[in-house]
Inverse folding.
């Protein structure tokens, strides 16, 4: 487990590197694809595009290759990948190239043979550093959120402008709430907005997260990460869980639903004590 100062240094460096990457052009229709460990980043961009009012799909490489791309005539493909030798990413790039779909792949260093085959399809490669790639991709996904409609854009932009202090804000909230993960073996339950935290937890621990709907208060325990916006929907589960001693097992994040994905990741980083 790293000290807070070490985590803060890693986070600041990841934010700096994410800001330095070229921006993605998001059109009216987008297919977002990700490997399992990179789903945290994909889900953040998915939620951002969804809230912008544009059309967006979220899928795995195989699903996109066989069940989405052949039946779409328009739309950009954005891929978040963390597998340097993935044949599924190669196949996806080749399918997209054959169908004339514009493809951008965000990834750490690829195996030379994989990189060559992808570049043959004229796919855009945005390579992130091999240090904390999943965190960099998550921050990058948030920074590429299209403009939101109405006055909400100003509030959302204000949160983006204060990302440098996001880890500190989350640390103070955890200190108050006092949740704990037990030896990296406890189940993490997520909501739609906090799913990125669930999959980041999976990337760090290998412990698969579950949607909050799957929590049976009388038979299971775990850490629940939820947003204030979604809390009412899960009132029945939350009330039963609190009654059975789960009061300190619930972490509520009161931010914009889009930035909540990143904050759920930061909560996991602080609770586990490492970024990668």
């Amino acid at each position: 487990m790293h000290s807070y100062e070490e985590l803060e240094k890693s986070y600041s460096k990841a934010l700096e590197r994410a800001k330095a990457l070229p921006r993605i052009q998001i059109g009216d229709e987008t297919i977002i694809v990700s490997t399992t460990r990179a789903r945290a980043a994909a889900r953040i961009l998915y939620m951002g595009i969804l809230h912008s009012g544009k059309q967006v799909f979220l899928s795995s490489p195989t699903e996109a290759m066989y069940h989405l791309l052949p039946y779409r005539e328009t739309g950009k493909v954005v891929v978040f990948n963390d597998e340097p030798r993935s044949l599924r990413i190669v196949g996806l790039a080749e399918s997209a190239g054959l169908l004339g779909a514009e493809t951008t792949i965000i990834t750490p260093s690829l195996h030379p043979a994989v990189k060559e085959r992808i570049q043959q399809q004229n796919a855009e490669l945005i390579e992130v550093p091999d240090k904390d790639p999943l965190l960099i991709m998550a921050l990058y996904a948030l920074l590429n959120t299209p403009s939101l409609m109405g006055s909400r854009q100003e509030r959302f932009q204000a949160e983006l402008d204060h990302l440098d202090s996001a880890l500190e804000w989350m640390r103070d909230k955890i200190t108050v709430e006092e949740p704990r993960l037990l030896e990296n073996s406890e189940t993490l339950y997520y909501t739609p907005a906090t799913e990125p935290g669930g999959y980041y937890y999976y990337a760090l621990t290998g412990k698969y997260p579950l949607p909050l709907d799957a929590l049976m208060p009388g038979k299971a325990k775990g850490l629940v990460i939820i947003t204030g916006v979604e809390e009412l929907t899960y009132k029945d589960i939350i009330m039963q869980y609190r009654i059975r001693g789960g009061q300190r097992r619930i972490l509520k994040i009161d931010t914009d639903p889009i930035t909540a994905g990143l904050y759920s990741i930061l909560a996991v980083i602080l609770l586990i004590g490492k970024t990668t």
User: Anything to note?
Assistant: The first strand starts at residue 29 and ends at 34.
